[in-house]
Amino acid sequence: MSGVIVTGPPKAQAKDVEALAGYGVATVHEAMGRTGLLPAHLRPIQQGTRVAGTAVTVLSWPGDNLMIHAAVEQCGEGDLLVVTTTSPSTDGMFGELFATALQQRGVRGLVINAGIRDTQELRDLGFPAWSAAVCAQGTVKATGGSVNVPVAIGGQVVRPGDVILADDDGVVVVPREKAREAAEAAEAREAKEAATRAAFLQGQLGLDRYGLRDKLAQLGVTYTSYEDHARDGAGS
Questions:
Q1: Please, are residues 108 and 80 in contact by the beta-carbon 8 Å criterion?
Q2: What is the largest CA-CA distance in the chain?
Q3: Are strands 151-153 and 79-85 parallel, antiparallel or unpaired?
Q4: Are 85 and 62 in contact, with CB atoms under 8 Å apart?
Q5: Which own/partner contact pairs does 26-31 have at CB distance under 8 Å and 24+ positions apart?
Q6: Alpha-helical regions (H) of 32-131
Q7: Spatial distance between the Cα atoms of 222 and 105, rounded to a whole number of angstroms
Q8: Helix (H, G, I), strand (E, B) or coil at 34
Q9: How far apart are alpha carbons 133 and 148 in whole angstroms?
Q10: What is the pTM of this model?
Q11: Could you give the 3-state DSSP secondary structure of residue 105?
């Protein structure tokens, strides 16, 4: 497998990345029209952490972390490393030493569609990571791959410089040219949710706030008392 290392790709503006960091993954995903969500099998090794950064992408051979070493050189302040493999892998391709090197360069975290190890050490370092697996299995450094090229993870394309937002709920990718638009949409959605939260605290029901009673009627859902339901033979 040959490959390429692309230097200096365009990136989302830092101010837009920081704006997106103020919102949860679910909010941004919904605000973008329910798009951009990476697969649910990418789970955090820590809890209570939200991070946003610009993607440095890595395409590696399964069980081979050579291209992660190559990617470290391409990483800088505010980046977030995104790694996937050419076919499924759970080998522990990333650990404490990589995290140490990346932290020194200002990298904010890792999303890896493969295995990770040294998870306690990563938590102690405060280096957040989302992975497809936790596995102590070691890897080799023998096969070429690519850095800073578009990669596909679970049907979602991540390009270098796109915004990656990750929290306890998962990971979402925001195209770099839509970062400002996504942040504004997330702000509007959060304001709407705040109004709904206040209404719920006042006792309003979602059935009424969202106009769902009409929807139930349209779907043929009816109300009946327990006694009538039992008499009709459907109760227990």
A1: yes
A2: 74
A3: unpaired
A4: yes
A5: 26/169, 27/186, 27/189, 27/190, 27/193, 28/165, 28/172, 28/174, 28/182, 28/186, 29/172, 30/189, 31/182, 31/185, 31/186, 31/188, 31/189
A6: 66-74, 96-104, 119-125
A7: 61
A8: coil
A9: 23
A10: 0.94
A11: coil
Euclidean distance between CA atoms 215 and 210, whole angstroms = 10
- Quote the Cα angle for 156-158-160, to 5°: 175
Task: Tokens 């839509």: give the residue.
Answer: 178
Question: Tens digit of pLDDT for each residue in 19-41?
Answer: 999 999 999 999 999 999 999 99
User: How many other β-carbons are positioned within 10 Å of the β-carbon of residue 43?
Assistant: 15
User: Where is 31: in which H helix or E strand?
Assistant: helix 25-31
Assigned token pair, 148: 């800073």
Tokens at 96, concatenated:
């404490």
Report how far residue 151's alpha carbon sits from residue 160's, in angstroms, rounded to the nearest whole number.
9
Measured CA distances, 141 to 65, 67, 210 (Å)? 6, 8, 55
How is residue 55 written in tokens? 């993607």
What is the number of residues in the chain?
A: 236
61-111: pLDDT as tens digits: 999 999 999 999 999 999 999 999 999 999 999 999 999 999 999 999 999
- DSSP H helical segments within 62-155, as ranges? 66-74, 96-104, 119-125
